[in-house]
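Fold this complex.
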Amino acid sequence: MSLSKLNPHRSHLIDTKSDAFITSKNHLTDLTLDRNRLHDFDFLTLGLTLTLVALGILTIYSTTYNPEAGGWLTAYCRRQITWFSIAMIAGGGLLVFHYNYLYQAAYPLYGFGLLLLLAVEVAGSNHMGATRWLSIGGMNVQPSEFAKLSVILALARYLSDRRLPPPYNLKELLTPAVIVALPSILILKQPDLGTAMLIILISGVVIFIAGITKGTIITIALSALTTAFAGWHFLHDYQRQRVLTFINPENDPLGSGYHIAQSKIAIGAGKLFGKGFLKGTQNTLHFLPEQHTDFIFAAYAEQWGFLGTMFLLALYFTFLFRALHIAMEAKDSFGSYLASGIAAIFFWQVTINIGMVSGLLPVVGIPLPLFSYGGTSMLTSLVLISILLNIHYRRKA
Amino acid sequence: MANVDNSKKNKREQIAVNGRIIMIAMALILACITLRLWYIQIVQGEHYNQKSQDNRIRTRRVRALRGIITDRNKEILADNSLGFNLQIIPENIGQIEDVAKLLAAQVDDLKAETVVNLYRKTPNRAHHQPITLKKNLSPNELARVEARKFELPGVLIETEPIREYPYDEVCSHIIGYLGFINDRELRLPAYKSYARDDLVGRSGIEARYQEHLRGEDGQRQVEVNARGRELSAYTTIPAQSGKNLELTIDIDLQQHAFDLLGTEVGSLVAINPNNGEILALVSTPSFSNNLFATRISSKDWRDINSDPLCPLQNRPIQGRYPPGSTIKPLIAAVALTDQVITPQTSFNCTGAMTLGRSKFRCWNRYGHGNVDLYRSLKESCDVYYYNLATRIPIDRLAAYGAGFGLGRLSGIELQEEKSGLMPSSSWKLKNVHDQWYTGDTISVCIGQGYLTTTPLQVAAMYAVFANKGIYYRPHLVKEESAQLTSNNPQKISTNFGGTRVEISDHHMQAIRKALWQVVNDKRGTAFKSRITIEGWDMAGKTGTAQVVKQTLEDLKGSKDTPWRFRDHAWFAAFAPYNDPEIVIAVLIEHGGHGSSTAAPIARQAIEFYLDKIKQKTLIE
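Structure:
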């Protein structure tokens, strides 16, 4: 094995039947922060992550501070920092374990994810016409967040296990389609169109990277279009409203169009240089809706202008290209698929969020990862990045 | 094994190739987002920046206080107090149904559906403008709304000056009332400086001096947050209060006269004969103009409008009545001036006079015997005036009448004024399409027929006898105060200067002497209402104006006549006789005889007023 040649000491641990199946416990917990191996660690990704989180906390501060209340940090900032710390510890801890544990746990985790979604169906709490939350011991968890990870895990495992050489045709993609469809349908029933779409889009990237035939691409594209037209029929009123509002936001400047209109005003008002930190009027006067969560990008854009948004985009896309690079460099195909899935999660979230606040896409409740206020999002993001770093760190072994 | 390796190799190749494709796709999407942001922030940046400014700066109107109206002694007749209006700003309302329900529970006569409908009716572009739900909240309502303010985002309490009339119905006809500007008016160029929800004078002084009283609204630019809460004020253009107005009315006399008229339907006009200043202008029944200061309820409006006695009518200037015998001094004056008679010329009254085939009766069917000028007025002999009528052409009467203010608008500062009618031969030809007959003149000479006058015109006419020959334009606004309005757009004449009538002094003296006898001679028709106080003696003339043609039998007992067919009672007088301070004309609709109903009221009003100015001079 070429991989064992790179690391002769551990060649005996590599299972030759599957390039990703490793059983030795010794090997799985091998991150002994060896000085000699420090250069294998991806400091670029870590640095980008920390910069984005720091900028996010700064922006949360600017959107939630109250000049009269005093104090050098707002409650939101403190909570975000707390969540970040917890997430860092969790992510750092996960780094110790070889990501192949995830390979082993992929299907059980997928099953667990489905169970959680079913539990929401049965016992979820209703919030604004949608049942998305599950209350466990006083904490509200959103199983659809977890579903994103469990689906790409299951996909990566299935695709890496597959002996058949890619590209795959439609028939060969039946099982992956079921893997994606089961949680998607459950999430769609909540109803959470945004997350369901997100899972399908993320899975699409993973399957695309694994390789599909041209005929399949055309077939999927055509059927997606048909589904879109037919699906309109099954959409909830508020979902249809969102789509309609997206097409013509001026139609309803006080309903959902209000969000887009105000957000565009905030972004545009930043002009080239921005109004300056804490000088944004759209956000300090509360014209921006959900300005510290889903619409945080608009608040940032008002304060830092075009230069600021370009800087932020540069950070995100460097991170995304880096993540894809990690996928391409991974030791095994499971790592590749997993890393590309993680890259896809970030890519779609960033694209949809910025597209949404800048009026390119309809309003769906998707936060800007690493940036928006929110514990679940922060935790998920950092765990995903930890997996990414894990795959990168172990790319040679 | 080879198969596996093949697959593995294949997978790696696919990842490498497809990963690059994904990278290219990402780069394309990055380009799209960059273009979008460039468009919003650079190309449209200024546009959105402006919008963000507009977003937070709201212009709120600061209402100007309306000018205060006072009487001649600076007693306030129209004032401003603070009213609290309930408003909502649609864009800051969350769930309108919830807010409406909550508000309806706090505020009386406010239905949740009304609020929801108002909200729905508002076009989106006006969603940042407050909508007024109810004006002038009661203290209880105000307290209840304020207590729940935190549950009611987007609900505002606006303070607004509201008009208050301390004397209410006592002088509501003079002051008038306010009403909301309507859509039709808003489109007119004359109202271009007005806005919806503005109150404008609808009658009386409030209407006539609208521009003078209204002042200029100010502006306050405030920074608001998305919930409509005002954070800070930027610039403030203070409101300019309207100018004050001082009236010639003596509110004490007005009040006293109002009380004297009581439940009678009628009017009382008091004028200072030396300058035409109106001291009192009472119309009964009256209405409360305070009701109009806030949005009048439809029930109140219905009640006022459907009242058969028309309380909204300003009788002293709008009521056109036959003047009855009160016209006789004018007829006598014209006869004297045209040398038809001398004061000593007598006519024999036998109770009636026959002209052609018609018989004209005197009110005294037994006749007065030989009647000269003094007796004709003192005892109000009709036959004497029938004789004059056959000798004076109607057009001469019309010409003199005009000099005394008959048949034309006096020019009082109330736009509701009606002119009454002083007929002439050309008038009859034009309007009745018939020639003038002597019979017509006979009717006119006893104040019936085509001749109609308003109580104000009668008062103004008697002011000429009081001041011995000068006609002053009766007016309500003090000259000094009125001068301030001379450059205002409503172009109200401030020329109160008197014009001398063409009656010679000694003829004037004769008429005045006769009028004195009416009240102070034992046989005078108003002897019972004489003033006995030394130096305050009154001169005047009673009048009884027929509403319907009466038969001889009706004259016997007018108590049985239905109220609406009874005669109108007139009394016009001035006092003190030698140096008159006040002229009064009283008209009681269907009051029967002037001597019994109208004269006592006039006497008491005159005594009240003379006493008041006497007290005043004593203090000074």
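The longest strand of chain A covers residues 130-136.
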